[in-house]
Amino acid sequence: MNGVSPSRFEFDAIGTSWEIDTPAPLAGKIQEDILDTVDRFDSLYSRFRDDSIVTRIANAKCGGTLDFPADAIPMFDLCDQLHALTEGAVDPLVGRDLELLGYDREYSLTPQTTEAGTSRPTWSRDVIRDGRRLTTRRPLVIDLGAVGKGALVDRVSELLLAAGLEDFIVDGSGDIRHRGSQALEVGLEHPLDPGAVIGVASLSNACICASATNRRTWGDGLHHVIDARTGMPTSDVIATWAIAADTVTADGLATALFFDAVSPLMATFDFSFVRMFADGRVEASDNFEGKLFT
Fold it and tell me: What's this model's pTM, rounded to 2 decimal places?
C-alpha cells in the first residue's frame, strides 16, 4: 500500500493488527473511543470470548432468544443476502465447522472427527431472525468472520468522521477504508508469494477487502474460508479482492467471491473485484480500477 501519512496509530484487535493513518496525531480521547468501540464489538461477536453473546448462543443447550444491538442489523441483512446469493456457501454458522477443523477457542489446530448423526445447521433454517433478535432451538456456533472485521473498520471510520477528520486510512489487516482527496494505491499481494503483488488497485474514498487461503492456515489444505454446504475449506479460488463504498460490504463480497456466484453478486451489489484461482488464472471485473501484472 502506497501512501504517506505524518501520523500512525497502531493497535491489536480481534486477533489481528490495525493501523490508522491521519495527517496529524489522533487526540487521546479519539484513541480511547476507538479502543472502547473495538472492545465492545469483540465482547459481543467473538466466539473466542466467554462473555460474548455469540458464546451464549453456542452454550444454549436448548437454544433461546437473544437481542443484539441495533447496529447488528446491517451485518445480519448482509449475511442474509450473501447466504441466498451463494446458495448457502456463505453461512455465519460455519463456526462449528471451523472448530471441528481445529480453529477452535483453544487454537488447538487439530482436526476432530466429524460429528456423526448431526445435521449441519444453516443460517436460513436454524436461525429465526427478527431484526436484531435471533432465536435458536439448539446450540449454534456463529462466526461473523465474513463481515465482522469490515463492519468494525466502518465503525472506527465513523468515529473519525464524527471527530471532523476528512483524510484518513483505516487498515484492519487488509480490510481498508480510504478517505481523502489523494487516491491510494493498494498492492494486491500474491497469495503464493507474500513478497510479490499481482497488481495494484486505485482506491479513492472507497474500501477494499482481501481474503486468501494462505492466511489463517494451519495444515495441509486447512484454512479459514469454508464452504458451509460441505463444512470443508475451499480449493478452487485462492485469493479475492473486493472494492465497495463501505467496508462491511467489501468484506462480505471478498468471501462470497470464493464461490461460483459472480453474476448474482454483480447484479445485486455495486462493487468491483479481482480474484485468483489455484491454477494461476486471474479474473477481474470490467469496472476494476487499477493494474494487473498477471
Answer: 0.93
